[in-house]
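Blinded run. Sample ID left blank on purpose so nobody reads anything into the name before looking at the predicted structure. Input follows.
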Amino acid sequence: MASYAHMKNDLQGQNWVFVDSYKEAVDLYLMNHVKKGDFAVTQDIGLASTLIAKEVYTISPRGSLYEENGIQTALELRYLSAKARRQGFYGKGPKPFTKKDREKFIEELNILLSNFKICSRNHN
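Blinded prediction complete.
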């Protein structure tokens, strides 16, 4: 399947990238265009594991930083959950997104960006 990506500048000078609508189009675009030191927000454990391997700072929308030492466990839990669903066992799904989740995300992202800013200063 051919991939389509189109970049467009909006009126405020921001770059927007539009990709195909097939299931993995965004993931494939990200995996092919991220660089070491970039930041990503995702709740997709599989994508997070790929981005971590590329040394991309990856955080969930609920404020959990994905790290190499815990991603394998998360992948295994995802696999077991998918296996259970195939066998007809369905859980309740994710908890609703709360104000506390948003606050944790903001706090963790600020910490991550602050650490990045400090590291950048030390390398200049």
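Unblinding after everyone has recorded impressions. The radius of gyration is 17 Å.
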